[in-house]
Amino acid sequence: MPSGESSTVERTSFPINFTIVGGGLSGLACAIALRQAGHDVVVLERDEHISPGGPRGGCRLTPNMTKVLRQWGLLEEVHKRCSSIMNTVKFYKCEGDEFLGQHEYTDEVLKECGGGYWIFLSHEDLRAILYDAAVKAGAEIRTGCIVSSIEPETRTVTLASGETLTAGVIVGADGATGLVRKVVAGRELTRTPDGYVLFHTSLKAEHIPEVPEIRGGNVDDKAVFVRYADGFCVYSYPVNPDGDLAIHIYAPDDGEDGDWNGQPTVNVAGLVSGQAPWLDKLATLVPRAIRVRNFAHEDLDDWVHEASGHVVVVGDAAHPFPQGGLQTFGMLIEDAAVLGKVFSYLTEESQVANTLWGFQDVRQTRCRAVHKREVHRARLFTLKNGPEQEARDEALRSRKLEQWHGSDLGLYSLEEPRVLFAYDANEAGAEWWQTWGILRERARREKPVDKPVMVGVEVSIEANVS
Ligand SMILES: Cc1cc2nc3c(=O)[nH]c(=O)nc-3n(C[C@H](O)[C@H](O)[C@H](O)COP(=O)(O)OP(=O)(O)OC[C@H]3O[C@@H](n4cnc5c(N)ncnc54)[C@H](O)[C@@H]3O)c2cc1C
């Protein structure tokens, strides 16, 4: 089992007080990273309980994410609750149970990308692990606290109870439809239904022998199974050491709303009937599904509140990903790691705004690029039978997945590990400081400040020396 080693972390010489709105995965991850960087943290979460019970969900932890969890010293705890390590994605057609092809992430490739790996975990367990780690790191986490308004200029957060809190920085981790996102944008934001609904359900491991097709005929616990049908897809993966499966069914948008906080009310039989006998059988074995409608959200130009320079958004509040996205969790953990890293260099109050803009500089381009891939990937899941579906299936059958790179089906290519998995969030944050952070700091201190050439020369010498 991989060790839960943690890396040495820089700590600020100027601790400030962060108030984080939202104790979902992003808020808790930011709390860990900011505490590790030496800052004071209060998290305000409207849920009464961090683990409210109900459906446990499923999260895919990608190599770029497990790398951060290792640096935070959390992998040991994760390994007590997660699936075994995964290395393959297998594609089938529901119709005729045809095996289309597979994509394997070899040990060599993963090693080249910095040693991260794939594991899967229930959403509830991941949240509980992050919660425990945030508390252990010294964050104050207040549940049952609904944030009703924010005043960026005075950095004041007001709760529905009437209580007010003043912060050094307000971090909006309150999700895609949260309050802070609107405060940062300075207006209401739009979202539009975007093509599909994700239905989430689960299958106990003891039932897998009754529908072996869901694991390709045997309990192959090293693979994710993607099964395409006409306009929809059944996606399954284990989420704990027992091998219980999370099952996502991506189906065309039917006009009905729903989100992760909803009740599991959907009878899966109605979704899969007529596709394959084993799917009809599966529908009798799984609990009712949660309906999560997918929306395209307006892209935020800025993640930092411009006028105050002291409010920032992270995770889904900054960059809402398509539902069931592969990198949703990787991106929010990277956000947290970068935020913690850039704030570990803080030495005085006047640097706060620059540092928040630095966080945006480091994260926004990557998140936009990954978002684009995720939208495309989700579209492949719900292709109706026709020329595009045939091209997708043929590419899989040919097993020349690397040729997908650059084509309209450019997923699961060799480029993927290099672009996505090799990223090291800590290094990205440190690099920002060494290139731009120090530069801005010098420029701010020097009078007159408009000497770009001189400043650039000094900084490159400094960077080489360090
Ligand atoms: C309960 C739940 C279960 C989920 N399960 C899955 C899953 O199994 N698989 C999957 O792919 N995705 C799941 N998701 C979605 C996924 O967690 C998010 O898309 C992604 O993790 C982004 O996380 P986030 O922390 O940025 O935002 P969110 O997960 O949306 O978290 C935002 C948090 O902010 C809190 N909040 C919002 N407004 C306020 C306010 N005004 N005051 C105080 N607190 C506030 C919310 O209660 C929530 O805890 C789930 C989301 C939730 C909320």
Automatic annotation (TrEMBL):
<dbReference type="GO" id="GO:0071949">
    <property type="term" value="F:FAD binding"/>
</dbReference>
<keyword id="KW-0274">FAD</keyword>
<dbReference type="Pfam" id="PF01494">
    <property type="entry name" value="FAD_binding_3"/>
</dbReference>
<dbReference type="InterPro" id="IPR036188">
    <property type="entry name" value="FAD/NAD-bd_sf"/>
</dbReference>
<comment type="similarity">
    <text>Belongs to the paxM FAD-dependent monooxygenase family.</text>
</comment>
<keyword id="KW-0285">Flavoprotein</keyword>
<dbReference type="InterPro" id="IPR002938">
    <property type="entry name" value="FAD-bd"/>
</dbReference>
<protein>
    <submittedName>
        <fullName>FAD-dependent monooxygenase</fullName>
    </submittedName>
</protein>
<feature type="domain" description="FAD-binding">
    <location>
        <begin position="19"/>
        <end position="351"/>
    </location>
</feature>
<dbReference type="GO" id="GO:0004497">
    <property type="term" value="F:monooxygenase activity"/>
</dbReference>
<dbReference type="InterPro" id="IPR050493">
    <property type="entry name" value="FAD-dep_Monooxygenase_BioMet"/>
</dbReference>
<keyword id="KW-0560">Oxidoreductase</keyword>
<keyword id="KW-0503">Monooxygenase</keyword>
